[in-house]
Each structure stands twice: as C-alpha cells, then as structure tokens.
Amino acid sequence: MSEILVLVEHVDGDVKKVTLELLTLARSLGTPAAVWAGPGYSDAAKARLAEYGAEKIYVAAADEIGDYVVAPKAEVLAHLVAERSPAAVFVAATGEGKEIAGRLAVKTDSGVISDAVGVGEGFVAEQSIFGGGVNVHSRVNKGTPIITVRPNSTAPVAAAAAGAEEKVEVALSDAARAARIVERVVQEKGARPELTEAAIVVSGGRGVGSGENFAIIEKLADALGAAVGASRAATDAGWYPHQFQVGQTGKTVSPQLYIAAGISGAIQHRAGMQTSKTIVVINKDAEAPLFEIADFGVVGDLFQVVPQLTEEIEKRK
Amino acid sequence: MNIVVCVKQVPDTATERKLRSDDKTLDRDAADGVVNELDEYAVEEALRLKEAHGGEVTVLSMGPAKATETIRKALAMGADKAVHLHDDALHGSDALGTSYAISQALKKIGFDLVILGSESTDARTGMLAAMLAERLGAPQLTLASKVEVEGTSIRVERITDYGYDKVEASLPAVVSVVEKINEPRYPSFKGIMAAKKKPVETLGVADAEIAADQVGLASSWSEVVDFAAAPPRAAGTVIKDEGDGGAKAAEFLASKKFI
C-alpha cells in the first residue's frame, strides 16, 4: 500500500494525541509514515509513533526548523512529497497545522482540504460546515491530497509497526527564515488537558457572571479530568483568557463530552462545539437555544447544579 | 507605510447559510452579506498603524458586485481607498485559486504590510494569510494578538496553544490578526458620508495579470462531491432542576460511562 505522510504535532518532545489519531486514520487508507520536523526528537517519541502504526519515521530534527514560523515545516514536507510521492499528506487541523498545509499546497501545486472530520476511500474527506449545519464530502483533484483533520475525529488505536527511522536533511530557503521566533512564552495552564485535544470539555458563559465564579467551572472540569472552555461573552468580559474561547472566532472542539454552563448557544458558540459526541447543557433559561442540541439538559441555576454535579462525581470516584 | 487590508464579504452567520445546488458553491444570495467579523479587527489594526506611523490604508476585497457594501463599510471605518477584485472568472475559486488571485492583485497595488483576519466565518480554512506569504515570498506573521512596527522592523505576538511566540521580521510582511488584538471602531456618520466619495478601483482578471486557467470553479484544486443538511441531533432529555439537577446530571454521565 502506498505511503501516507502524517506530520507529527509535538510539544516539548511529546507526541500529541491528535498525531496518534491521524496515524490510526492513515492506517485505514495506506501505510502511515510519520514526519517529525523540529528539535526534540527522542527514543520515547519514536516508540510512541511506532506503537500507533508508523511504518517509517522521517526525522528532520535540525534546531533551525523550530526557529521560524511555519515555513520550515512546509519545506520539510514539500521535500518529502517530491522525493517519496506519497498518496496523501495528513496534518492536524490546528491553527499552525492549517497554515503548514496551506503553504505546502502552494509549494506542491496540490489541492488542500481544511478541517476534515473523516477521510474515506479515494481520500474523500467529510467536513462539517456552517456551524455544523451542513455535511460536505470533498476531494482533491490536482496534485497530492493534503488534508487537515480536526482533532478528536478518530479514536486512536495502537497497532505496532516498524517505525524505521530515516534522517531528512533539508536546506531551508531564505524565505523560510523570514519570520524569526525570538521567544516562546508559556502561559500557565496547570495540569488540565489542552482544549482542542481533551476528551471532555466544560465551558462557562455569560451566566457564570464573573472571573472569580469560573472557579466552579474549573472544579467540575478537574473532577472530570476535563479542559475548561469559555464562550465569547465570557472572554470578551475578561472573565477567562481569550485562548480558551470556543466558537466561531475561537477554537473548534469535538470532544466525547461537552458540558456548557450558562451559555445560551448562539451560532457563534455552536460553530465551535456542534460536532461534540455528547452535549450536556445547564442554563436557567429554558428557552436557551443550546438545549435544542443537548443530549441532557438541566433548566436551573448553574450555581446550584454545577457544584452538586461536581460533588456527585467526587462521591462516585 | 502602505498598508493593504484584505476584507471578505460573508453570509451573515445569524441567518441560514446554504450551498448552491447547481455548482455546489456558497449561495451568496441566500443570506445577507456582512463584513467577515475578524476582518474588522484587521481594518482596525491597519488604521491604528496608520495613525501611529502615517501612510495610507487600501482595502482589497475579492468578491461579486455586492461586495461593494463590505468595501464601503471598511472605508467608512477610515480606510483611504479600495480595490475591488471582481470578475465572473473568479467565481468558485478555492483557497489556492483565491490566494493566487489576491497575490496578483497585491503585486499590482504594492504594499509594505498586508493585514487579514485570521479566518473567514464561511469557508473557515484559516490558510489564506499563510498562502499569501508563501506566494509573495514575504514573512508570515499570522495569528497575531499584538503588532508593533518600528521603521522597517515588525514584531508580533503570535498566539499558540501554550501561550504565544514573539516573532520578528522585516517589512514587507503578511499579518493575520485574532480578535484579542483590538476593539474595532464603529463607523461615524461623518465616516459613512465620506466613504461614499472615496475611490474604489475595480480590477478584473486581465487587469491584475491573473492567469485564467488558475482561477474559477473549473480550475480548482479541490471539489465538493456532495453535501446535505446535517441530520438533526436526536432530541435529548431536558429536566427542570428540583434541587437534584446536579445529581440527575451525574446519573446521566454515569449511564454514558463518563464517570
């Protein structure tokens, strides 16, 4: 079967969960080959990629790949596309992943599909558009299909493969060195999972009322091992940091379980969470539109319901 | 400083958005057209940079005839002039075709800085700024929550999953902004009146030296195979809290094996 390149997303040398999902998806359509670009490669990373089915691991570990914005990673992939003629390239549909895919598409004169929630035979991709209102099948018809895939679209399943390493040396162009990263600023996120990767997300909105009150949202999230999200009303009000905003102008999440407290559910918010598998809504307004897509809803005061739910979860542990 | 800000007219997200049944492209007549929300932040940032450093702000929009409404709004906010990239041959262009057409228009206009919103609310590819940087050979300063220009140097804070990166480059450059960056101004009555007199130049495919075989639906690198309205989610259970709403919710989570 032909090779499918999977760009590895990694932070501090750790392979992110979305990469394991992409390897699992690639196995159903071809032979997955992981592509590591940037510093931090280790035996642990190699073992992880092999465990989830990478037959090959292309390693471009030069420090300078991590020193510039996006372009070097696109050059590494373009080099491999030219050399290996893969059947397709899969990249995580994260902010950076989509940008890498976009540059790669221009470089290789190939079509690109953004934010797929599934990929089938012939690399026909499924997308959920217009805030989840319309399902689309689309495909690339020129060049090598480049597909960015939404995190949490596939359940990662281990299936050991060879993980044969191959070093890749790419001489970066001057254009790839044009936007230099001079400092990485890591903001406190505590022990919680990352928002777009989390299996469970607990979000608060206007009904939470203040930044201090977000503590009850965080307590519920911690009881479930979940990430915390926020509606735009909450981030605009300064109650919770902007990078946790779920919605049309924020992050798109697709967890197994999404709990929304004090969020009415305007399209702005639904566009970022509508493909969640199970949705629980807590709101004192029985008319809140989010109840329409809830699997389970409680009409009530979130300041009563959320702490009680947290307590019940702790009791059952 | 010569700043070009790219704006897109998109269907209002508050209305029902559709694809056309004939050619499977966005139905631009089904819903009211509004300025893509993130582009208002791009216009605001362009105006602030002009106010701080002098120069001129040019609005560039690719779209059908009715996109002039969106162009006028950006002019009413305070941009100086506009270019409307408008040609039937552009209809149905995908992200690659669109980025090619816009890059050709940008070469024609000339720029020190191009500013865009980080994504549109209709297609949501989030790729256009990166593609433009690639095509123009300009530094990519995208997902910016802060922009500072000093002479020919530019610094931005680029948001990441872990916080942000501080990034430096030299002009000319391509910047995309996130909504955290500023609070867009409302057009004043005076601004709205003034916008009616500001120059709007229309560029066609030939004017911008756009190769016809690189744009439009037939030349796209990707295609929609089919589409359908998403099936409605099965109706769930909604209860009224009678003092045990949290406990009931916990029972539901347990029944689904989440706890």
TrEMBL record, chain A:
Gene3D superfamilies: HUPs (3.40.50.620), TPP-binding domain (3.40.50.1220). Its cofactor is FAD. Residues 4-185 form the Electron transfer flavoprotein alpha/beta-subunit N-terminal domain. InterPro entries: DHS-like_NAD/FAD-binding_dom, ETF_a/b_N, ETF_a/FixB, ETF_alpha_N, ETF_asu_C, Rossmann-like_a/b/a_fold. Heterodimer of an alpha and a beta subunit. The electron transfer flavoprotein serves as a specific electron acceptor for other dehydrogenases. It transfers the electrons to the main respiratory chain via ETF-ubiquinone oxidoreductase (ETF dehydrogenase). PANTHER family: ELECTRON TRANSFER FLAVOPROTEIN ALPHA, ELECTRON TRANSFER FLAVOPROTEIN SUBUNIT ALPHA, MITOCHONDRIAL. Belongs to the ETF alpha-subunit/FixB family. This is Electron transfer flavoprotein subunit alpha. It comes from Microbispora siamensis.
UniProtKB/TrEMBL annotation, chain B:
SUPFAM superfamilies: Adenine nucleotide alpha hydrolases-like. Pfam families: ETF. It comes from the Bacteria. Keywords: Electron transport, Transport. Residues 23-212 form the Electron transfer flavoprotein alpha/beta-subunit N-terminal domain. The electron transfer flavoprotein serves as a specific electron acceptor for other dehydrogenases. It transfers the electrons to the main respiratory chain via ETF-ubiquinone oxidoreductase (ETF dehydrogenase). Heterodimer of an alpha and a beta subunit. This is Electron transfer flavoprotein subunit beta.
